[in-house]
Amino acid sequence: MTVPMTALNLTRKIIQSHLASGQMEIGQEIGLSIDQTLAHDATGQMALLQFEALGFPRVATQRSLIYTDHNILQVGYENADDHAYLASASKKFGLWFSKAGNGICHQVNLETFSRPGDTLLGADSHTTTGGAMAELAIGAGGLDVAVAMGGYPFYLPMPEILGVELTGSLGHMIRAKDLALEILRLLGVAGGRGKILEFYGPALANLTVTERATIANMSIETGAITAIFPADDLTLKFLAQRGREADFKPLAADPGATYDGVISIDLATLAPLAACPHSPGNVKKVERIQGLPVDQVAIGSCTNSSLEDLLSVAAILKGKTIPAQVSLAIAPGSRQVFLELARQGAVADLIAAGARIMEVACGFCNGVGQAPKTKGVSLRTSNRNFPGRSGTPSGELYLVSPETAAISALRGQITDPRELGPIVISVPEKLATDLSLVIPPASLEEAGSVVIERGPNIAPPPSFTALPKVLTGEVNLALGDNITTDDILPAGAHILALRANIPAISKYIFHNIDPTYPERQKKGPGFVVAGFNYGQGSSREHAALAPRYLGLAAVIAASFARIYKANLCNFGILPLELIDPAEREQLAQGHKLSLDLSQLRPNATIIVKNLATGVEVATKLAISERQVKTVKAGGLLAEMAAKN
Ligand code: MIC
Ligand code: SF4
User: Does residue 32 sit in the same domain as residue 110?
Assistant: First the structure.
């Protein structure tokens, strides 16, 4: 076959059609125009506050959305205040507002708004879920999303495109979750860094959009920028089921297109898998951990809360009951899913089996309810089992497929789902699409009279000043590898309620690792030292913004996770990469350091002088020209304010 020189893989095609600046050369910074954005009630309030601070009159994207799904507990005024702010600001600035009860942002967005070939930028790391709809769907910090809402491009280094060829078909009771976990087993929690995973191959013919969504969702756990599937007959089927045929267009890699690397997975070789405590990358076969008694089983989250997932769970539980010692919580991913479960009688089957039906929201996934007992074993269908994420620091979280979760709930112990017989579920040709909980924005004419509601929980974003020429300060914390944003700023209902209030939330920085850190950091400019993959996990910009508010000036690490590094730059914190990672040992908590910052430029070597020991450590400022300007200015808000 002769391959045209211009044969492009699907990712490159979408990048090319949205390229606002730069060239498609790996590692070089490119700007992408953004079609759609999303944020939610844990990131959207700060994104919108920053959108206001930037002075944008109205969103300039094709569609921007705010979802109410993370902070749904109302045990004080804080979350209700935030929701009132988000609803009124959305109305004024031209965003669609999805009310509490409508569902988890990624599930609802996939069902309702995702379109093949679009770019979607979301203030949530699992925005990658949209890749199931052939979208280039990327997670970012709220400030990047605010800037994209204002009509500016989103910048990132041109990724490597890793082709993931899928052959064969999934065996009995082996699910998309097992494939997502297999990819994690192969790549680990950092193997996807700098890459986009593009799926192709004969196995896609049997992998529904819902299954693709589970895989795209968990791709971020490998550190990848995102994942993408082609738009094919199954995509059309998913859209047609929801009356959205008009949004379909077929999309795939050109014949003969190549990738920067390829991995092949034969689905027939997979076994049921589990991510064991305390990392999504700690993957083992379920048969190896079989028999471990479970205290809690939680089914839901943006990874596994689709209609197919929950119908399958209901079919397994039907006519049986869970043992007394097990607590089973089930949270449908969207109102559409919940309604259909109710219509089919599946909700009755779940209740009869002893399940607790939770609100249609993130809930247990990020510690908003259902914290397990001390040292409790919790089997979950979600995507992250970082220490403390459940709300119980000693909780032992295992991530599994819905089928493994359901059979284990019935047995009271981790059980291989292959011992179940075949399951039959019926997914209707047409599903009710009801947008009554999605509030449209005010028209341009009406927008002027919309008053934004600002309760006492809404504080303006702090402003920062430019970096000094010589930076001197103390190492306030020295950490190891794979520190997550959950470690830096824990999730959980109590802390999540403060996302619109930086002074209040800054008190919880490193709360589960060292609660004395904020007091030390407040004394003056300071440093954090860490190992590889610092800042993995969520997109929460508060994990950079709040430390900056406390005085953090630079992080010195062996390497950074992509979103976190971008967030550091956005708030004027220097991300410095150790040229020799072993030299991390030279920088300990309490050491006083001095850095000459007079020559900041991309890839500059910055020497860190340890004033306590006299040792000098070389670091690299591996950021773009654009980011250097931002950091120098004291962050993006300060930089853009200076331009206007
Ligand atoms: C998560 O799953 O960790 C979250 C909570 O959805 C975060 C968003 C946040 O912390 O604001 C994410 O994935 O980005
Ligand atoms: Fe919500 Fe959990 Fe998904 Fe984050 S991972 S968006 S908390 S369901």
Answer: yes
